[in-house]
Amino acid sequence: MIPFDRASRESPGILAQLHPTQKPIRFPKYSRYLSGSPARRAFHELIAGTVGRYSVQNWKRFGRFEPTFAGGGEPFAGSPWRRRKGAPRPAIIMEPPSPLDRLWQEYSIVFKDFDDHSLARWLSQTLGQLRGRVWRVSHPLVGAYRLAANVAHDRQIWLKRLAMAPAGYAEADCCRAPLVPLFTRDIYDSGLICLHCNATIVELNDIPGLIQAKIRAWSDEYKAVHAVAHWEEDRRGSEEQYDKAFEAAARDAERILAAAATDVLPDLLESYPAVIWEDQDECLEVAPEDIEL
């Protein structure tokens, strides 16, 4: 099965090969999960692999969203995306890699040149440096580690047992890599995310009681603020009114995200040797440099 975007680059005439009644479809409602801002794409598509964290938590959230690719594949029975019998198969048009995407791919070349033993040792040594702290996802050391972890995941480095993880790191059930949780603003729906493969490693309900209560309170406060970015037109009012509401929400988001790093996540260090947190919100235009600790 070849995704449509890759097939179209390899065979420019593929559009002409589609059924005469088949029309490419787009999904504007889900566009931010399929593409996202350049910064989001850089960290969550290229560093983390595949489609990024959206392929995990938003596939769960929109679990019935199962479009098909040109060349094969059928949604599960009952899916709203399942074709009627005899209907032409739709094709997904994906955007080509952006210049920033290609830049991050270039950054990862250095780790692709490592042999398996060298890569395993580098990952293990870097995990030792990460231990004992709560880290921003935008931190350069974390970014470098995620690039290397993506290459290691493709090669199944941790399954080969080429290096020992530092003391304190448990083994993740999802990919057998050392367990390093990623805390995102979607913690309520996605739980804690595996830094290596983007799978959910701990559901919110499985987090110990006292910490879970703090996280739920934090999530409820943040969701109310984040919702401003997705107000419908009839709720926005005038452009000036919405601009004021948006700016106020952005300032609140900066404060709440900082509170996660200082008041909530240190408690998780009792269970995990290192914790990574998402220090940005592209919907409210909050960048890492806007969040002061």
Task: Describe the structure concisely for a colleague.
With 293 residues, the protein is mainly α. It has a domain at 101-290. The chain has helices at residues 4-10, 31-34, 38-47, 54-61, 99-107, 109-112, 116-130, 140-155, 187-190, 209-226, 233-236, 239-264, and strands spanning 134-136, 181-183, 192-194, 200-202, 275-277.
Low-confidence stretches: 1-83
What structural class do helix, strand and pairing data support? mainly alpha
What percent of residues are in strands? 5-15%
Q: What's the count of strands?
A: 5
Radius of gyration: 21 Å
Terminal Cα span: 46 Å
Helix content: 40-55%
Order of helices and strands: HHHHHHHEHEHEEHHHE
Shape: globular
Biggest β-sheet description: 5 strands, mixed
Describe this structure in words.
Helix content is 43%, strand content 5%. It is mainly alpha-helical and 293 residues long. It has a domain at 101-290. A five-stranded mixed sheet has the order 1-5-2-3-4, with no helix packed on it. Strand 3 (192-194) and strand 4 (200-202) form a beta hairpin. Helix 10 (209-226) packs antiparallel against helix 12 (239-264). The protein is globular, with a radius of gyration of 21 Å. Mean pLDDT is 76; it is low at 1-83.
Summarize the SSE layout with pairings:
Elements: H1 4-10, H2 31-34, H3 38-47, H4 54-61, H5 99-107, H6 109-112, H7 116-130, E1 134-136, H8 140-155, E2 181-183, H9 187-190, E3 192-194, E4 200-202, H10 209-226, H11 233-236, H12 239-264, E5 275-277
Parallel strand pairs: 1-5, 2-5
Antiparallel strand pairs: 2-3, 3-4
